[in-house]
Amino acid sequence: MTELFFLILQFFIIYFLLSFHLFAVFKKSPVLSNFSFSEKISFNSIIFLNFILVFSFFNTSLEIIIISYFFYVFFLFFIYVYKFKKLVFELNQNFFYFIIFFITSSVIFIEVANNLVIGWDAEKFWIYKTLNFYNGNSVDDLANLYNPSYPYLGSLVWSFFWKVSFLQNEYSGRLFYVFIYLSSLLLFINNFKINIFYKIIFFTLFIIISYDYTHHSNWSVFSGFQEILIFSLLTMAMHFLYNLSSFKGKLDNFNLVSILLICNLLVWIKLEGFVISLSLIVTLVLFFDLKIKKKIYISVIFLFIIFLRFFIFDFYNLNTTGTQHVGFDLQNLNNIIEKFSASRYLMVLKSLFLNLLSNYLTLISLFILAIFLITKQNLKKIYYVLFFAAFNMTSFCGIYIITDLDLTWMLKTGMDRIVYQFSPFSLLLILEFYNLKIRNKN
Known about the structure:
mainly alpha
């Protein structure tokens, strides 16, 4: 019972730390006034992750990062008290969203607590980075660990909530993964113009579809793998892309800044984040009706994000070999060209196709795309979604083809996780399909 109490308490600790919005400091904020429960939690999660990431750049210890963030939260807390005079829920839809969010979080928290085994990647790589921060070390100490060239943000947040917990177990840090996963799904569900009862049904179905990992042979979503963070942040990015696509001129700058902040996080979680963040930026630049000046700003900021990522790793000597990932050593143009054989190409395509069919989200999206084609619907509205998906598929297939390691083993152990990471595009396809049906009825 004691552990169950602390599990529930951990939910409220995380919730409290992500409850107070940065825009509260402004007297008139259209963003704050229009924010729903899920929008507030999701955007605050993005701010929180960027906050602790930036503080880590200065080689600060975890304790300093925690203290700094607590100062930030209490500063916003007092602003909220001063401006709004209360910190209680009103009996509106936000209250019911909170209840369903609390219930689903508690259920999965208990499941995580009862399954203490961490995954292979987490055991070999991520847990050591987590222990590095948890034990008071900072970024420069990562150079002494195995594969220091791997990004560390997921381990940093893991250690953060392990430290900010009454539970004496590392899994308390992984509970944030559950929190951000559920908040991202709840955020996206809000885009469906249906009543709250059906939103709860959709929310539950999307949890079942994206959480069920029985088709994965060697990993689970909350066992310390970083794919769940990529999935969750990309789901949030799909929400902001949808807003840009459907509500032109309404908080465009806010949506763009949110996507850029997400891109910054993606490149610090896994190396795959480079490809996924690039696909977001290219999609924005090519398919959205933005002024040329804005497109230039977006591109420059993204280049700065990439530069900063490499600069920090170079500054702290985290990549002395210059190798970004095992299996891609001493690559040159001739060596790369030689690997583009028909047999390797077909092997990668076969693995991609089978994993697209075994992932429930992408399987649904393929079914929806087939309906679009059969009914001869205008695909123009979903071009940007299809491009995003195709960009990721093509890029990751190319990366697999040029690997130096055994290709069969690489595909067997990695392709399902790659597909899972960019699978949130399916949510956007489902939403656009739903909107099309609603418009046709009207």
